[in-house]
């Protein structure tokens, strides 16, 4: 029995995490000779390899090749195909309030006809452009290839009941431009009844259905009944609905359309980087995407009608095998059941004098102490390894396989340490003094990197207060257990009331732990060894199940947002604690327990240090960026890098002719300091810039040179300019006197773009035209090849051409105009 007390919590932890790891594994790709009605990642990979050969941003020469490939493929499948040219607009956003993006897009629409051509159609959507410097095998060549494979599989079966439209959008990366053009102005949008979108943010891991529209209960039930090995939960959908992140699916939602949004998000070092090659893509992720999307699309296509609007559900997959969905009212029922079980446990424990009210209160404080300490530990880790620095962020991202287990082991060590202290108590006041000093030091250390951090200091202060409230005397297992259950119950009730979709991750572990506690209180104290062993086994099984489910949820969530705030993983450890608590208290009674907890803490810190300081290596390269800037208005040329620190390759590139790079701003192109060094002036073509005034209208016209991928106009006027128009069409371009406004036109029309404003008052305007072209200019000195440990990012290895102009004008007098 002593062995069980020592090893029980560790066995349950390891077994639960092993099951979670199995649940997160991707399925093997089906071979090319798989049945015609099934999704085969092997078949789809042929298109991934064809599309994802090179970067193909909107407006590039390479995207023309990709477009031709898509047109050939959909024509070969016998689909009705159209190229839908248009103009997409990304309005100013909160993070860029005076900047607008526009693009000349060429969406591709391919239709699989249904038996009822008038019925609302199913739209399957993906985008075929990439960011510069990334071949985009995952984002979104995988989505495009999956759509083609879905079309082939549907074509192999009987005709669907309704049209299935496959929309391949252009210009997603610079601002969802193709989707905006389709859903805002394309008349085909009126035929759409439901949308299935496929995306990627990384190139590995299970695909998840992470976003739906409002009132999608019936649609979720259809997905749950048809998807193979579904991965989805209502927390992700509820949270993503409130995040600033967008995909093409955003514009479908703005039109009030229902739908499902899929993506896989592991191995994010390949997100928007050169690492995103077809060979690097996890084919199991592509298979998992198709296994979920194809059955959902097929069910929508063959149904007599599309799912109607119905109240949202609470739902989650169970270890990636089945999806459980239930109404919000049932969520209250789960919490009511958990509350009754906790009430029963508390009543029996108090009546049997196994616990006192004071112990329960101290148990509540102790669980809050555990929670604050766990969050503080990972918050400090995130600050110290440098996630606030973009270059450090990608370096740490390259060590994700050490970061996740390091964070998990550190959490185990911290939580067990707090439970040991709680179980044994600190008889001496100096023990709490030392803990308080340590907590304040850890909280203050959060400000060592990235500037002053009130969150870290606040968490440190909370640990101090809670340590004085909960420690000093030992707390029995029922005091700690009931305290933990009551805290989680309060959290679950709050989530259920304010954000019902979020309650699933709290309610399920809470119900399981409450059931275990009630079972212990109902049959505990028996002298029958067999009953005692069965009771211990039941507690262990509950703990394993909770750790497995929370481990799967936590790992997926950590892959998505963990590098922005590693402390998010602490939430899942906190929710697992009530189920593990009785086993942890048994472990705390062992005299060497503090050493075991300390070793776990040290091991977690060691792995996190390795993740933060270790070299990523050639298979996990770091980012580098260097470009040529030709300022035609001053007759100067520069080599520039916006990275915070120069790597050796960028240093060599910028130090052309022994120039010394310095950090400086260069408005209006670079408003924040970047690395710049003068270089030889080389001949580059000049874009046309004309600034004129006709009546009360100010006209700014720019004509790009051949091969320009992006044409940006930035202007600053001494007076407010009203009624902005782009090529004669009204556009929402915020304008404030004395501040720069920006319009970036992607894949610009060779005939040029014209911005016009009403300007009646006398004033003056400064205008800059900025052009992005692929490659270094002709005649450039030899650029050294990047070493294996570096990869290009952003606008690296491109030519930036800058020219400027000004115009002053008198006040507009209407009588003179007449």
Q: Which value, in Å, is the CA radius of gyration?
A: 30 Å
Q: Structural class, please?
A: alpha+beta
In whole angstroms, the N-to-C terminal distance is 102 Å
Q: Main sheet, how many strands, which sense, barrel?
A: 15 strands, mixed
Mean pLDDT, all residues: 91
Helix content: 40-55%
Beta strand %: 15-25%
Low-confidence stretches: none
The tally of strands reads 24
Shape: globular
How many DSSP helices?
Answer: 22
Put the structure in a nutshell:
The protein has 818 residues and is of the alpha+beta class.
Write a concise keyword list for the protein shown above.
818 residues; alpha+beta; 15-stranded mixed sheet; 24 strands; 21% strand
Describe this structure in words.
The chain is of the alpha+beta class. It contains 22 helices and 24 strands. The strands form four sheets. It has a 15-stranded mixed beta sheet that branches. It has a five-stranded antiparallel beta sheet with strand order 15-16-21-18-19, with no helix packed on it. A hairpin with an 8-residue loop joins strand 1 (80-90) and strand 2. It is globular and about 100 Å long. The relative contact order is 0.11.
How is the topology of this model organized?
Layout (H helix, E strand, L loop, with lengths): L1 H22 L17 H11 L9 H16 L3 E11 L8 E14 L8 E7 L9 H19 L8 E6 L7 H9 L6 E9 L7 E5 L4 H10 L7 H7 L8 H6 L4 E6 L18 H20 L10 E6 L3 E6 H24 L5 H28 L5 H8 L2 H25 L4 H17 L8 H17 L6 H22 L5 H20 L5 H33 L6 H21 L4 H21 L8 E3 L2 E5 L4 E6 L6 H7 L7 E5 L3 E9 L9 E7 L2 E7 L4 E10 L4 E5 L2 E2 L10 E6 L6 E6 L4 E12 L15 E3 L5 E12 L4 H4 L1
Parallel strand pairs: 2-20, 3-4, 3-5, 5-7, 10-23, 11-24
Antiparallel strand pairs: 1-2, 2-4, 6-7, 8-9, 11-12, 12-14, 13-14, 15-16, 16-21, 17-20, 17-22, 18-19, 18-21, 22-24
Helix pairs in contact: 1-18, 1-19, 2-4, 2-9, 4-9, 10-16, 10-17, 11-13, 11-14, 11-15, 11-16, 11-19, 13-19, 13-20, 14-15, 16-17, 16-19, 17-18, 17-19, 18-19
């Amino acid at each position: 029995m002593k062995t069980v007390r020592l090893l029980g919590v560790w066995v349950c932890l390891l077994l639960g995490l092993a099951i979670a790891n199995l649940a997160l594994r991707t399925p093997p790709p089906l071979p090319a000779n798989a049945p015609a009605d099934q999704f085969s990642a092997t078949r789809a990979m042929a298109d991934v390899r064809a599309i994802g050969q090179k970067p193909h941003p909107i407006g590039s020469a390479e995207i023309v090749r990709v477009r031709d490939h898509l047109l050939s493929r959909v024509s070969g499948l016998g689909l009705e195909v159209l190229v839908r040219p248009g103009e997409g607009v990304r309005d100013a956003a909160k993070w860029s309030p005076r900047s607008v993006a526009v693009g000349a897009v060429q969406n591709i629409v391919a239709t699989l006809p249904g038996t009822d051509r008038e019925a609302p159609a199913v739209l399957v959507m993906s985008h075929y452009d990439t960011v510069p410097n990334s071949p985009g095998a995952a984002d979104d060549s995988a989505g495009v290839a999956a759509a083609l494979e879905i079309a082939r599989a549907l074509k192999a079966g009987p005709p669907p009941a309704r049209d299935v439209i496959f929309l391949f959008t252009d210009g997603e990366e610079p601002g969802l431009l193709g989707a905006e053009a389709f859903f805002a102005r394309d008349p085909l949008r009126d035929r759409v009844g439901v949308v299935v979108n496929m995306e990627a943010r990384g190139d590995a891991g299970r695909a998840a259905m992470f976003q739906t529209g409002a009132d999608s209960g019936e649609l979720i039930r259809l997905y749950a009944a048809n998807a193979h090995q579904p991965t989805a939960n209502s927390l992700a959908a509820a949270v993503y609905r409130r995040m600033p992140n967008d995909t093409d699916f955003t514009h479908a939602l703005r039109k009030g359309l229902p739908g499902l949004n899929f993506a896989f998000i592991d191995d994010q070092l390949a997100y928007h980087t050169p690492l995103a090659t077809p060979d690097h893509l996890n084919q199991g992720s592509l298979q998992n995407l198709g296994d979920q999307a194809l059955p959902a699309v097929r069910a929508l296509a063959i149904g007599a009608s599309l799912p109607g609007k119905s109240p949202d559900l609470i739902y989650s997959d169970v270890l990636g095998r089945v999806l459980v969905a239930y109404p919000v009212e049932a969520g209250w029922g789960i919490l009511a059941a958990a509350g009754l079980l906790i009430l029963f446990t508390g009543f029996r424990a108090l009546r049997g004098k196994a616990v006192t009210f004071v112990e329960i209160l101290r148990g509540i404080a102790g669980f809050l102490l555990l929670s604050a300490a766990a969050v503080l530990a990972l918050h400090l880790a995130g600050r110290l390894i440098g996630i606030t620095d973009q270059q450090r962020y990608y370096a740490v991202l390259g060590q994700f396989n050490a970061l996740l287990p390091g964070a998990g082991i550190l959490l185990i060590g911290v939580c067990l340490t707090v439970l040991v202290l709680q179980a044994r108590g600190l008889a001496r006041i100096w023990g709490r003094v030392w803990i308080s000093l340590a907590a304040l030091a850890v909280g203050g250390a959060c400000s060592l990197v990235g500037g002053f951090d009130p969150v870290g200091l606040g968490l440190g202060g909370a640990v101090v207060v809670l340590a004085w409230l909960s420690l000093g005397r030992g707390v029995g297992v029922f005091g700690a257990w009931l305290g933990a259950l009551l805290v989680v119950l309060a959290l679950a009730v709050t989530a259920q009331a304010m954000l019902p979709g979020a309650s699933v991750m709290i309610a399920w572990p809470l119900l399981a732990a409450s059931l275990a506690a009630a079972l212990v209180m109902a049959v505990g104290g028996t002298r029958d060894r067999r009953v005692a062993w069965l009771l211990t086994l039941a507690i262990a099984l509950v703990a394993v199940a909770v750790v497995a489910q929370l481990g799967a949820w936590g790992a997926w969530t950590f892959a998505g947002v963990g590098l922005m705030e590693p402390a998010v993983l602490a939430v899942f450890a906190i929710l697992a604690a009530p189920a593990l608590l009785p086993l942890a208290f048994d472990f705390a009674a062992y005299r060497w327990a503090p050493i075991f907890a300390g070793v776990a803490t040290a091991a977690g810190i060691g792995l996190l240090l390795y993740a933060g300081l270790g070299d990523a290596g050639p298979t996990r390269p770091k980012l580098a960026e260097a470009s040529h800037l030709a300022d035609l208005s001053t007759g100067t040329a520069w080599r520039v890098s916006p990275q915070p620190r120069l790597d050796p390759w960028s240093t060599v590139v910028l130090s052309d002719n022994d120039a010394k790079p310095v950090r400086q701003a260069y408005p209006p192109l670079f408003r924040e300091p970047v690395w710049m060094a003068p270089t030889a002036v080389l001949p580059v073509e000049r874009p046309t810039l004309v600034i004129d005034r006709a009546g009360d209208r100010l006209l700014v016209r720019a004509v790009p040179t051949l091969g320009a991928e992006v044409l940006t106009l930035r202007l600053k006027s001494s007076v407010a300019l009203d009624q902005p128009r782009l090529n004669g069409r009204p556009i929402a371009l915020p304008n404030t006197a004395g501040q720069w406004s920006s319009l970036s036109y992607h894949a610009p029309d060779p005939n040029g773009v014209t911005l016009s404003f009403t300007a009646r008052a006398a004033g003056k305007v400064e205008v800059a035209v900025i052009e992005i072209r692929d490659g270094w200019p002709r005649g450039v000195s030899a650029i050294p090849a990047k070493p294996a440990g570096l990869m290009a990012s952003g606008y690296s290895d491109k030519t930036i051409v800058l020219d400027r102009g000004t115009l002053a004008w008198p006040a507009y007098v209407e009588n003179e105009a007449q």
